[in-house]
Predict the 3D structure of the following.
Amino acid sequence: MRKINIETGVGIFLIMGLLCIFYLSVKLGEVTLFGTNQYPVKAYFSNISGLKEGATVEIAGVTVGKISKIDLHDYEASVVMLLDPDVQIQEDSIASIRTQGIIGDKYIKISPGGSEEYIKPGGEVLETESTIDLEELVGKYIFDKE
């Protein structure tokens, strides 16, 4: 009888441990099991050097979404951002690519506009600022001296 109680306790302990590991992997990996309530917004950039899928989207330093997809469309980079449902951005907002720190990761910063109209889900940010290419700037400075 005592052996059955010990085996039952060990079994329950193992099941609880596996459930905890599963929960942590889902939370830390930011995996969505049942879809998301975020809505997509698209933006086109001429240069997104260093920007990756999964990077953050920020407004005023607060993370409001992430980048879900990056494609090439008519020689421009098409970036699909998934934004939180409680965040609305104006039609004349500016999406710019920034760097966190000196050698940090790239992210998209959205500067709000003053329009009374908001971008609808599946809409597009029309004003964008691409990333600054330091190699190109240095090359121009060195080789374009007159």
